[in-house]
Design goal:
It is a single chain. Helix content is about 65%, strand content about 5%. It has helices spanning about 10, 15-35, 45-60, 65-90, 110-130, 140-155, 160-175, 180-200, 205-215, 225-235, 265-295, 300-325, 340-365; strands at about 1-5, 5, 90-95, 95-100, 105-110. The longest helix has about 35 residues, at about 265-295. By secondary structure, the chain is mainly alpha-helical. Strand 4 and strand 5 form a beta hairpin. The protein has 13 helices and 5 strands. The strands form 2 sheets. It has a 3-stranded antiparallel β-sheet, covered by helices on one side. Strands 1-2 form a two-stranded antiparallel sheet.
Length: about 375
């Protein structure tokens, strides 16, 4: 069947979402072009190429039935967990952290992929669990093991930000599955009480990041330099920005990591408040679409997975924006589809591909 002159498979694609993603990816390339001083290398061209490849991959993933994602949830989790162990054994070290496996064409960061696999694995567990056991201990300890193992492996890399996102992703699925709220409140109270002890186990640079977050002006030229320069870049952009290629903080190398973690600051300096709002609204619309997919899903696995993947993208964006605005410690979380970085973009596109697959599954079941 066809919809007018458009083949049915293409007509079933969420074209509004795809145009939104293309807009974000294109805007990201433009920002990276400016961050390099008006050059396609080393960031803009590779960003654009990866975007095209990964978006094509996401569209192809949307044609895979939802049931297959359910079947590969546990094996996929095991593979990524093995990759995390491999990072500890043979992983590359950069900036004092051991997080990457060099595959030649891409430096793979398995911890990024675990943000996806923890959602699939925990959602699969609760989809298989009888509804009557949701309030039993059986519904609690297996997911805690599933998220605890990668959390500890990523924590020792060390990568506190990614480890926290993995834990939050798993806990989100546990909450959505119907685990009693009192358990989360109790665990939160215990966690808050243990914060001083946990702080003592952090690496020195991680402790400094937390302290600088609380008072960045204390060492504005040292540990607080990133946050200070990021605030200056965002604030100096005003409402309309300084104009394309007219940024100073990034072009004069005052803003560290202006093409990755702090790309939003690079953008805001040149495009101002309006550019920042455009990016935020785009991600809000993507999140809204994802939650609509979850709401319409007609299987327990589909509902939990769609909601979990939507929240994973939400955590990416929220943590990055809070970080660059000085409202959260610097934890190295990139801005999806805008920051330069292959693994983070790959992970988000995988999330979107699976979400599109669940939406297609919903349409097939309802006959739409």
């Amino acid at each position: 069947m066809t919809d007018g002159f458009v083949p049915a498979p293409l007509a079933q694609l969420p074209w509004r979402l795809l145009f939104l993603l293309i807009g974000l990816g294109t805007f990201g390339s433009i920002v990276l072009y400016s961050a390099a001083g008006g050059s396609l290398t080393p960031w803009a061209a590779s960003h654009a190429l990866r975007f095209v490849v990964f978006l094509t991959m996401a569209i192809m993933l949307s044609f895979i039935p939802e049931e297959r994602y359910a079947r590969i949830a546990f094996p996929g989790y095991a593979v990524v967990l093995a990759l995390l162990v491999g990072v500890e054994l043979i992983g590359g070290i950069s900036g004092g952290s051991q997080r990457w496996l060099d595959l030649g064409f891409i430096r793979l960061q398995p911890s990024e992929l675990m943000k996806l696999m923890i959602v699939l694995a925990v959602a699969r567990f609760y989809a298989m669990l009888p509804v009557g056991e949701i309030r039993s201990w059986t519904a609690i300890w297996p997911p805690l093991v599933l998220l605890g193992l990668p959390f500890l492996l990523v924590l020792v890399q060390p990568d506190l930000g990614t480890a926290t996102m993995i834990a939050i992703g798993g806990l989100t699925i546990m909450f959505l599955s119907g685990i009693p709220l009192r358990l989360f409140v109790g665990a939160g109270a215990v966690g808050a009480a243990l914060l001083p002890i946990a702080f003592s186990f952090l690496h020195d640079y991680q402790k400094k990041r937390v302290l600088i977050f609380l008072n960045p002006e204390e060492d504005a030229l040292g540990a607080g330099y990133h946050i200070t320069q990021s605030k200056i870049a965002i604030g100096s952009g005003g409402i309309f920005g300084k104009g394309f290629l007219n940024g100073t903080q990034s072009h004069l190398d005052y803003l560290p990591e202006g093409h990755t973690d702090f790309v939003f600051a690079t953008m805001a300096e040149e495009w101002g408040l309006l550019g920042g709002l455009a990016i935020i609204i785009a991600f809000v619309l993507i999140g809204r679409w994802g939650l609509q997919v979850a709401n319409r899903a007609n299987t327990r696995f589909g509902r939990l997975t769609a909601a979990g993947l939507s929240m994973t993208i939400f955590y990416y964006v929220t943590i990055n924006l809070l970080m660059v605005m000085g409202l959260a410690p610097v934890v190295g979380i990139p801005l999806p589809l805008v920051s330069h970085g292959g693994t983070a973009m790959l992970n988000v596109m995988l999330c979107l591909g699976i979400l599109m697959s669940i939406e297609r599954h919903n349409r097939r079941r309802t006959g739409l």
